[in-house]
Amino acid sequence: MAKGFSRRNFLKSMGVAAAAGGLNFAGLSRLAAAGAGRYQDLPRLVYLYPGSPQPDVQTVQDVLSAYMAERIGATIELRAIDWGAFDGQIGLINASAENYDLAFTAPWINNYYTNINQEYLASIGDMLPELAPNYWASLTPETWEAARVGGGIYAGINQQIFVKPFGPYLRTDVLEALNLGDAFAALTSYDQLDPIMAAIKEYADQDDTLTHVTYNLAQIMVAENWGFDPQNSGLIVRSSDPSAQVEIYSQTDEYRQAAETIRRWYLAGYAPSDVALWSEMDAAWTAGQYALRVSDIVKPGGNAEVEARWGWAVTSKPIAEPLLTTGGVTATLNGVSSVSAHPDLAVRYLELVNSDPVFYNTLCKGIMGTHWEWADESQQLIRPANGAAGFGDTGYNPNTDWMFGNVFNSYYSDPTQIGAWPETAELNRNARPSPLLGFTFDGSAVETEIASISAVTQEFGSPLGSGLVDVAEGLAAYNQAQLDAGIERVRDEMQSQIDAWKSANA
Amino acid sequence: MATYSQKLREQKRLDTDRLMNLLSRFSIHIVIILLSLGCLFPLLLIVSASFTDEIALTRFGYNLIPTQFSTDAYAAIFRTPGVIIRAYLVTIFTTVVGTILALALMSPLAYALSRPDFILRKPLSLFVFFTMLFSGGIVPYYILMTQYLRVQDTVLALILPYLVVVYYVLILRTYFAALPSELIDAARVDGAGEFRIFLSIALPLAKPALATIALFTALNYWNDWTTALYFVRDPQLYPLQYMLYIIQSNAQAMQLQGSVGNITVGEVPTQTARMAMAVLATGPAALMFLVFQRYLVRGVTLGAFR
């Protein structure tokens, strides 16, 4: 008697889980008939990714597994590793050939290129069109090229904003108080910020919360601001240059101009003179100490995002032209381990997570009814389930949609975001591809030079970026130090690799 | 006459001596006071920052006295007190169990190695001390722990690595070796077996050395976070120090993501919350230090023997 009861209970809970996962009834009855034993025998894909382990991860994992079992004949194990420990742990896991199937990888964490060099990732380029047809078709061939290294594609690309249209963000209350709306909307270059900054400075002098106009000035030195595709070691290629000639960034007019602008602003007292404070930029923004972020990525829904993160409504204006670069595309990838016993199933998983919104959103947001519920289904807008105050209180909120798959399939969690995804997709589609899209530099021949250049950049580049030194003097010293560090050898090596890459792709 | 002037001179000498003595003591005290202030200052700053309002902290910076008193940071942490209590329990458990186990393993080993009449003394010594000079490196260590012993994500992973520290075995062995061999002979004549000799003669005599090693081992366990970094993924098993490390490095990693740009991240703990966490994690340990200070000082001087 007791046994029957518990079994029914079990099936009921399965039903809830399956319904949340969007299983059809045929699938449900098959599952119910077979019981849990059936899909526990299926291959289990282990997925490693950075993030704080969520309390309800087991429940979500069970629902995802049931859903996957029906579709690709495999289940999933979600292994979140804390952000701070991820690089260390996955390094050991890879080095010891510990078994796993999928992992988050990128040039900035769990380095994609190192993983390829060490043969930690499997080449999946040949499998993608066949086993993940929808996913393969959802990205343009040029975009896929960006993930290609030495002839192979070693990871799936998560669609998100690939381009980096940098521009200033200004607090809306200050903008309105000073009536700067038109001037701000008319901005086309950073130089034109001067009168706006002067006006804010005057305003700030009378306000005791607002202590500075802005904080971190070095942001305008980001190479994309000037239409450059940044490469290794302070080298750049102009996006307008089809012949893709490598140049030393600090020797360009644009760099000098940026350095002079920063110096001018610094001397005018627009930023705190204690540069050590700049790292506390976000905290100072929350505290309302400054009104202008000189250069951040301006994207659809960006204003709402900035407001949600740090308070203060903002207005933004893109200045940099959207440019599609290798770095932008490869910022978020999911690779298949070279020791995986089921690379084919792992690729099918990539298809599912990138093209099935129900599956993807369960992974990103949790289970409908348990962790979230519809606020407005027609608009794809959700809210925390059961009256929870925020998504963080529901027990499952990794809050890293961009890590798992195609964010354009993600449900909106804030009404101001609605419509941001199609706009972003449009931005990606219309962006001008860099002449180097798909090229990746292999620096192994000039490792020593790269290391010394990195040290030189710290020593001479950073003071220029913070406006602490006279531009003419500082720049001359910086350029000389770079030459001494061997930047020309890196440049020539890169140029020859680019030329070889171009002729191979011609 | 002569005696009087002599006395006077003597008196003068004594006076200058006393003055010099006073002066040197005074200057030593000044130095020590400055040093201890140097140690105390950062701690006080952290305590003060943890009680400061988040926005005030950013606006006015760190102060010895909170510019705007607030207990928000502690309130935020104690909304889920389980986490920190859990971490404390893990740390206390590994420290206590680890230290006891470590002593139980190291003292017999050291004792056996100290006995000149032990047949396997040479090969065993080589086996033990070889690891002090050559280590396999981190990857074989990781493979051993995860693929052969399979202790990842268990409390064993936190305990095993410090059970036998060769250097401590060396100290203990030296101490045992210095015990007069006549004692052991006498015990044997009285009919005691090897275990009896070890337990009733050698161990009680080695108490000071054992206390020192116990203290060092306990400190090892208490301060360890790297083991957790390699082998623990389950937040339920985070020791205290690792939890602090994770909070700090998560905040850094999230800043890194900010510089990557096109992605949003979860909530970064506020500065004050990080400070409050540090206070909660170090506070009780610091209190314990005050209580056990006596033993610690004695232990440190004992550690310097021979």
3D shape of chain B: flat
List the strand order in the largest sheet of chain A.
Answer: 2-1-3-15-6
Taking the sheet with the most strands of chain A, its summary is: 5 strands, mixed
Ends distance of chain A: 74 Å
User: How much β-strand is present in the residues of chain B?
Assistant: under 5%
Oligomer: heterodimer
Most extensive chain-chain interface = A-B, 50 and 39 residues
Number of DSSP strand runs of chain B: 0
- The total domain count of chain B is 2
Low-confidence stretches of chain A: 1-36
Rg of chain A, Å, rounded: 25 Å
- Which sheet architecture does the biggest sheet of chain B show? none
Question: Can you write the helix and strand succession of chain B as a string?
Answer: HHHHHHHHHHHHHH
Instruction: Please give the CATH architecture of the largest domain in chain B.
Output: Orthogonal Bundle
Give unreliable regions of chain B as ranges: 259-266
Blueprint (SSEs and pairs):
The complex is a heterodimer of chains A (506) and B (306).
Chain A: H1 2-20, H2 25-34, H3 36-40, E1 44-50, H4 57-72, E2 75-81, H5 83-95, E3 102-105, H6 112-117, H7 128-131, H8 133-138, H9 141-146, E4 148-149, E5 152-153, E6 155-157, E7 166-171, H10 172-177, H11 181-185, H12 193-206, E8 212-214, E9 228-231, E10 235-238, E11 246-248, H13 253-267, H14 281-286, E12 290-297, H15 302-310, E13 314-316, E14 323-324, H16 326-329, E15 333-336, H17 343-355, H18 357-365, E16 372-376, E17 381-384, H19 401-404, H20 420-430, E18 432-433, H21 447-466, H22 471-485, H23 487-505
Parallel strand pairs in A: 1-2, 1-3, 8-12, 14-18
Antiparallel strand pairs in A: 3-15, 4-5, 6-15, 7-12, 7-13, 9-10, 10-11, 16-17
Helix pairs in contact in A: 1-4, 17-18, 21-22
Chain B: H1 2-50, H2 54-60, H3 72-77, H4 81-114, H5 121-133, H6 138-148, H7 155-159, H8 166-177, H9 181-189, H10 194-205, H11 207-223, H12 226-231, H13 240-260, H14 271-303
